[in-house]
Structure to design on (1245 residues):
């Protein structure tokens, strides 16, 4: 390859006219540089920057050469086409390809490609075969579009380039993605461009106007308007073919650059040359490309050089004569023997690098072109090395193209031994770019997430989220809040650099601190402590880093404690459901994780502004996953499933599954039979769940019946064993496991002597029995509920008695003893509400506790009732407001009575009806809006017609609002409306008398018929239209809610059971005794044993067994899902199609076998002819052998020439020398023949 000369045009003339300004430029022979012209100072900034890209401080001569090398940069305006604008640059053939690449990427703003396909040949095809045109239009452009590729052509509007440009245009119009674009770049010789003077005539700040034309085959062609960028090469007349050299150099430079979806430097840009047809002059360019280790894809059946190479590759063995014969047959117009010899040698050198050649026959193969391209790149790499590091670029390319099938079949096929360290970079790429199939593939092939995922990598994953995603907005908000807190907490003084806010054009670098804040907003206490462990700081600058929470470098290198959970949260927060599903399937504590994912997506769907993203979040199936998986566990073992609900998890901050389900508001999960069965068990406490209500009520009013057999206790069999958990040392027994799962750690069961029951006296055993039964009966939630219901009815009876019979005057005459007792009763209710709101076990602020308390509607009702009671009592103590106090207390009694509805929520029949009534109340409010509009319209109109001058406001409101409302229910006073029915009474029209109330106002009888007409219309609309609308709304609400009332009721039932499970055993007003005892217990910090039923800390061995059991059930559930998926009609159709494709491949393999047999026959024929020639030579020599030559056997062969008779020792006597000589020349092979130098190189062993 000729070296680039210093002169811009090789041997430039002494004078040359500048194409921009017309000045004559003198050329220095010594320096080969052009002198400056008047347009030198007005160069385009793009040209100047490209020239300066070769280094600062360049000499004036270098700048002048850079000016001439860049020549002309501008825009092209194609008239009469849809593409109106393109860019072009005119360069010299010796221009450095670095400048051209910088021009494309930096000045013109093209993103670095992930693939470069150079289209070689096909320019001479004026008429293309339909399948070839479809391959270019559908295959090549589609493959390029799926990867974001550059396609390099000659850019001329002729031959295959024209069809390619049309395909690029069609795909660009049909594409909806702005990220992945196909860029068609034309590299054409300057002297082959039609109307090239128009490019030079345009001013530098204006585009050149070019009209594309379809010109016949000749010396010049028009530029293709569907190409977006053009590099126009001015060739030296003494160096033809310089444009091809420019293409080879540019492709070589591009192949050395690195790019990637995950960031700069991910993998080298793959470059592939696609050979279509091709004239013999293509061979020189092809040989240069192969010299640069550039893979080539040959399109079989396209004709020209491509078919010659395919034919020779299929033969496997050939000689120079056969190659020359193929060249002459393919190109009959070629007659120069020197050219044919040179082409033959080039073909031999090209075929010696068979690992860089791949043949694709679109008519015989069904593979997509992008698959073939990737296979060609992998083949070129595999032939050079078997080391894993050498395959990383191809693997990264497969990740970028998302072709996991090729990665499985060609890279992870067992030929290369991969280590976990080799796959770390591609694993990060697959995670960042949402390639779950590749993540699964890498994990299956050696990546251990426990070693791979560090806190630093996890932080990088969160930093790589898309700026348009909701997660980025949430993290940015937390980041800005942290910066404000840092600014407020920073001590006075000059600001530190590391606390400066990021510029607007820089992406904020998030830390795990922001992630923990976002998670806490969604999961609350279930994620408390995530990513918040700070390095200990003993310096005096702690105030400056108070809210930074940035992990130290050493901590960032630590491995994540729960990698599957961390990646699951990362995927869920980005709404990458397929990725999150895989992490959920691989991670532990699957039920809890599914509920956490459901909670996050449910919260994010309310924040998402895009409707499509919000819909996909709502359609996530994590609640169904949790429900189905728990159902699988429940069907396997009820006791273990119950323990799974209350077990304190390791990955979710000691939260239980029930807590996570409550946070997520997973009503369907609570409606599961297993959860309801567990709640029923909790509801009845230690008593059996089949205890009759009558027995419970009887024992409630007659406590001695507790110690009889009237009520049975389910855990007495376990209690009789005594001794607590020390005896359950061996965990292999199912009875032992069941005992550990069901024990509630009652202190009365484990507080006896060490000798157990046998070591105690009968009196002690009897007292323990009495105390245990007494405690278990009265502490059961059902008993607590029964006591509260009974006492609440007693409270309402007392309230009624006070209001109706014993509401005494203000002090000192009152209040009486019953009223004082009522005050004390309400005081105990207030204490209980304060305990529920502020004195809970959750570790959170008082404000947040109050917020959670207010979220419950029944708690709001309690607050209203207590507030009204306090107001009423305060008013009744003062003489002036005594009646107001009575009124407020009367209203307060209504509120306390309505509170009874909550008590009935536990009933299976009444509970769902309460939900329906609640929904109907919302419908009533909407109905009242329509009703009020029509009612006010009618009331104001009738008031204005009947009583236009009545100044009394109370009567105005009565006639405008109250009287029309009574009309709806049939109370129509016609004597006040109809003139015919008005009685003869004294009335007045004097305003003073009306105000004094001496006489009623006289109605206005003018247009009284209009009042009657309005009444008829009002009754028609309200009684017929609006009331029927209300009934229809109620019917629709009933139908919609009826199907889900059972689910809502079961969720309400759970809340009610948890409420009464946490309540003291005594009901108000005796509950104050329980409050005092709880206060004393909290002072001595004694734990409350009642919580053990809803939150259990299992022993380490049993906890591990339970987690393993849950994992096994999860695998069974996933296997069941997989079977259902495979048995679906769609999958069966895919399986059938795959089998048909496999059968077609097998049938297609017969043709390959036929080719191999034909090649072997040719080689055998060649060996036979050589042996015949050797035998003939021996027969004509003087050498003799003692034994006779072997006889030629009779062979029936097809396609194989039999060994001639001349193979015997003596030549045939009847054949002359003239006849023998041509035969010798026919089988003679020259020393440079391919078959002589390299025997059988292409036989598939």
């Amino acid at each position: 390859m000729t070296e680039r000369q210093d002169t811009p045009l090789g041997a430039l003339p002494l004078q040359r006219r500048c194409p921009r300004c017309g000045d004559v430029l003198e050329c220095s022979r010594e320096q080969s540089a052009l002198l400056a012209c008047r347009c030198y100072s007005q160069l385009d900034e793009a040209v100047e920057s490209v020239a300066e890209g070769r280094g600062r401080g360049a000499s004036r001569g270098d700048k002048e050469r850079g000016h001439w090398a860049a020549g002309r940069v501008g825009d092209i305006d194609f008239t009469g086409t849809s593409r109106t604008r393109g860019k072009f640059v005119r360069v010299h053939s010796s221009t450095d390809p670095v400048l051209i690449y910088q021009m494309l990427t930096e000045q013109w703003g093209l993103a670095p490609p992930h693939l470069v396909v150079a289209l070689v040949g096909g320019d001479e095809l004026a008429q293309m075969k339909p399948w070839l045109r479809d391959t270019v239009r559908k295959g090549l452009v589609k493959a390029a579009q799926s990867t974001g590729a550059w396609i390099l052509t000659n850019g001329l509007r002729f031959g295959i380039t024209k069809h390619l440009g049309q395909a690029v245009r069609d795909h660009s119009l049909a594409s909806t993605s702005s990220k992945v674009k196909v860029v068609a770049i034309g590299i054409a010789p300057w002297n082959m461009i039609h109307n090239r003077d128009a490019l030079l005539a345009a001013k530098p700040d204006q585009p050149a106007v070019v009209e594309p034309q379809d010109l016949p085959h000749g010396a010049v062609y028009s530029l293709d308007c569907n190409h977006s960028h053009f590099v126009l090469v001015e060739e030296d007349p003494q160096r033809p073919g310089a444009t091809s050299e420019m293409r080879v150099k540019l492709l070589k430079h591009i192949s050395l650059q690195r790019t990637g979806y995950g960031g700069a430097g991910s993998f080298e840009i793959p470059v592939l040359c696609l050979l279509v047809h091709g004239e013999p002059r293509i061979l020189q360019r092809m040989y240069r490309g192969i010299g640069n280790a550039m893979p080539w894809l040959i399109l079989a059946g396209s004709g020209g050089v491509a078919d010659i190479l395919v034919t020779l590759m299929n033969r496997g063995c050939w000689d120079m004569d056969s190659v020359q014969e193929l060249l002459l047959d393919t190109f009959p117009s070629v007659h120069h023997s020197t050219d044919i010899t040179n082409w033959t040698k080039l073909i031999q050198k090209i075929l010696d690098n068979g690992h860089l050649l791949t043949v694709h026959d679109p008519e015989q193969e069904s593979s997509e072109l992008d698959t073939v391209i990737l296979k060609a790149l992998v083949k070129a790499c595999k032939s050079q090395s078997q080391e894993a590091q050498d395959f990383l670029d191809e693997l990264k390319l497969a990740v970028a193209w998302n072709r996991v099938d090729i990665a499985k079949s060609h890279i992870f096929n067992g030929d290369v031994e991969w280590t976990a360290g080799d796959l770390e970079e591609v694993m990060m790429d697959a995670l960042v770019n949402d390639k779950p199939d590749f993540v699964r593939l890498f994990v299956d092939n050696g990546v251990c997430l426990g070693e791979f995922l560090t806190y630093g990598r996890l932080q990088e994953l969160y930093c790589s989220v898309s700026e348009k995603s909701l997660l980025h907005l949430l993290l940015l908000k937390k980041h800005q809040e942290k910066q404000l807190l840092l600014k407020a907490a920073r001590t006075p003084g000059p600001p530190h650099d590391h606390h400066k806010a990021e510029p607007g054009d820089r992406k904020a670098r998030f830390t795990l601190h922001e992630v923990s804040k976002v998670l806490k907003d969604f999961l609350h206490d279930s994620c408390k402590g995530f990513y918040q462990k700070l390095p200990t700081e003993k310096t005096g600058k702690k105030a400056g880093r108070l809210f930074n929470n940035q992990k130290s470098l050493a901590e960032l290198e630590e491995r994540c404690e729960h990698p599957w959970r961390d990646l699951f949260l990362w995927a869920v927060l980005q709404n990458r459901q397929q990725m999150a599903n895989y992490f959920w399937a691989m991670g532990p504590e699957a039920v809890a994780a599914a509920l956490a994912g459901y909670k996050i997506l449910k919260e994010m769907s309310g924040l998402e502004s895009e409707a499509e993203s919000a819909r996909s979040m709502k359609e996530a199936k994590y609640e169904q996953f949790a429900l189905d998986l728990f159902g699988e566990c429940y069907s396997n073992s009820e006791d273990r499933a119950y323990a799974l609900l209350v077990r304190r998890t390791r990955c979710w901050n000691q939260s239980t599954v029930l807590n996570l389900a409550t946070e997520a508001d997973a009503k369907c999960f609570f409606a599961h039979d297993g959860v309801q069965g567990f709640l029923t068990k909790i509801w009845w406490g230690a008593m059996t769940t089949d205890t009759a209500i009558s027995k419970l009520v009887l024992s409630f009013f007659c406590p001695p019946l507790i110690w009889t057999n009237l009520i049975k206790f389910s855990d007495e069999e376990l209690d009789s064993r005594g001794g607590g958990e020390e005896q359950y040392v061996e965990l292999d027994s199912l009875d032992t496991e069941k005992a550990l799962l069901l024990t509630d750690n009652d202190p009365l069961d484990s507080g006896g002597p060490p000798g157990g029951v046998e070591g105690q006296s009968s009196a002690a055993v009897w007292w323990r029995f009495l105390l245990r039964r007494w405690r278990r009966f009265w502490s059961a939630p059902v008993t607590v509920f029964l006591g509260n219901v009974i006492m609440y009815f007693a409270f309402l009876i007392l309230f009624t008695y006070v209001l109706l019979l014993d509401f005494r005057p203000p002090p000192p005459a009152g209040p009486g003893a019953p009223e004082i007792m009522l005050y004390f009763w309400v005081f105990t209710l207030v204490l209980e509400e304060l305990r529920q709101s502020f004195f809970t076990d959750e570790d959170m602020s008082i404000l947040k506790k109050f917020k959670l308390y207010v979220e419950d509607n029944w708690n709001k009702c309690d607050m209203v009732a207590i507030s009204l009671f306090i107001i009423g009592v305060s008013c009744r103590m003062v003489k002036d407001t005594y009646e107001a106090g009575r009124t407020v207390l009367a209203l307060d009694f209504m509120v306390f009575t309505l509170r009874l509805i909550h008590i009935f929520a536990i009933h299976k029949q009444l509970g769902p009806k309460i939900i329906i009534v609640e929904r109907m109340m919302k419908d009533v409010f909407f109905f009242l809006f329509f009703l009020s509009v029509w009612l006010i319209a009618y009331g104001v109109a009738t008031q204005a017609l009947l009583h236009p001058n009545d100044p009394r406001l109370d009567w105005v409101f009565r006639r405008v609002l109250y009287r029309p409302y009574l009309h709806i229910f049939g109370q129509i006073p016609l004597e006040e409306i109809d003139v015919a029915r008005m009685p003869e009474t004294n009335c007045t029209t004097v305003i003073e008398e009306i105000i004094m109330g001496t006489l009623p106002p006289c109605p206005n009888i003018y247009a009284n018929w209009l009042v009657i007409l309005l009444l008829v219309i009002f009754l028609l609309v309200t009684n017929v239209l609006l009331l029927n609308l209300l009934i229809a709304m109620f019917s629709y609400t009933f139908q919609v809610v009826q199907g889900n009332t059972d689910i809502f009721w079961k969720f309400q039932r759970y809340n009610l059971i948890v409420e009464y499970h946490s309540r003291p055993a005594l009901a108000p007003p005796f509950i104050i005794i329980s409050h005092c005892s709880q206060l004393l217990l909290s002072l001595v910090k004694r734990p409350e044993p009642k919580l053990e039923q809803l939150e259990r800390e299992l022993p380490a061995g049993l906890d591990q067994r339970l987690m393993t059991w849950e994992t096994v059930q999860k695998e069974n559930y996933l296997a069941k899902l997989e079977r259902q998926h495979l048995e679906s009609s769609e999958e069966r159709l895919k399986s059938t199609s795959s089998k048909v494709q496999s059968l077609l491949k097998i049938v297609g393999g017969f043709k390959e076998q036929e080719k191999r047999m034909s090649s072997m026959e040719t080689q055998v024929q060649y060996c036979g002819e050589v042996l015949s020639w050797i035998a003939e030579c021996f027969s004509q020599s003087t050498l003799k052998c003692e034994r006779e030559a072997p006889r030629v056997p009779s062979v029936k062969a097809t396609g194989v020439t039999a060994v001639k008779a001349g193979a015997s020792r003596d030549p045939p006597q009847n054949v002359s020398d003239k006849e023998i000589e041509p035969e010798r020349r026919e089988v003679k092979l020259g020393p440079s023949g391919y078959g002589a130098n390299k025997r059988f190189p292409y036989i598939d062993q």
Notes: The first strand starts at residue 15 and ends at 17. The mean pLDDT is 78. The chain has 51 helices and 15 strands. Residues 782-898 form one domain.
